[in-house]
Design goal:
The protein has a single domain, classed as TIM Barrel. The radius of gyration is 18 Å and the shape is globular. The protein has helices at about 15-25, 45-60, 80-100, 115-135, 155-165, 180-185, 190-205, 240-245, 250, 270-280; strands at about 5, 30, 65, 105, 140-145, 170-175, 210-215, 215-220, 230, 255-260. With about 280 residues, it is of the alpha/beta class. α1 links the parallel β1 (about 5) and β2 (about 30). About 45% of the residues are buried. It has an eight-stranded parallel barrel with strand order 1-2-3-4-5-6-7-10, surrounded by four helices. Strands 8-9 form a two-stranded antiparallel sheet. It contains ten helices and ten strands. The chain is about 40% helix and about 15% strand.
Length: about 280
Amino acid sequence: MVRVGCHVSIAGSVDRAIERAIERDCDTFQIFSSNPRGWKSRELKPAEIDAFRTSVRESGLDPAVAHMPYLPNLATPKPDIYQRSVETLARELSRCRLLGIPYLVTHLGSHLGEGREGGIARFVSGMDRALAEAGGTTMLLLENTAGTAHSIGGTFEDIAAILTGSDHSDRLGVCFDTCHAFAAGYDIATPAGLAATLEALDASIGNDRVRLVHCNDAKGACGSRLDRHEHIGLGAIGEEGFRRILHTPLFRGLPLICETPVDERRSDTDNIRVVRDLAEK
């Protein structure tokens, strides 16, 4: 059996996420621990920390995953944004430590046209500062991106450069996003393309670094650089593509988080069911 879940809201209190995950028939779940579209965050109260930890333990949901907010950009050359981004990463790592969350997923940011090498160097420096300041054992998962203009993380080589450049490599892992990989040009929809992608992933990063999968179909074609998620099996990767992906030992053995749309066609529960069905057929 695969472990599959989705991203759920913490509206009202962070511990409310667990009941929402259970309602959606999740085995695992992902949250934002604070406002994803702002720089500030409300301090976590001891009672809600205890309630979250207790609810996770009693639910059997595993693992709990947090995702970084959208605004931080550790690859930026703008000093003010860079400093706020480092502070936000340290804060989110600390919140994960308090909540007992083992994984924090982060996007790798944009160098804003100033060059890949400089962007990666800034990211590594800021990330290492945040990891040292926050302490704890939460693993930071570097998410591959769709390869949009000036972004870093669209290639496995970008991620490998961060892993090898960090002084805290033991605290780092990888979140593999299926939509992003496909949009960036890794043709995981075909048998040959999936095999080549897995070979490139292991050669550049190492399969043991991959700890989580963002399980998303893609609205755009392979190599389109379009970061638009679609329901599982209804996009360009398709049902057969996902069936192969979900029967691959590497991906099958990892927690799967759906970040798919919710609309008149499907709910979160529907996409979770489709993932389970494709994994078993």
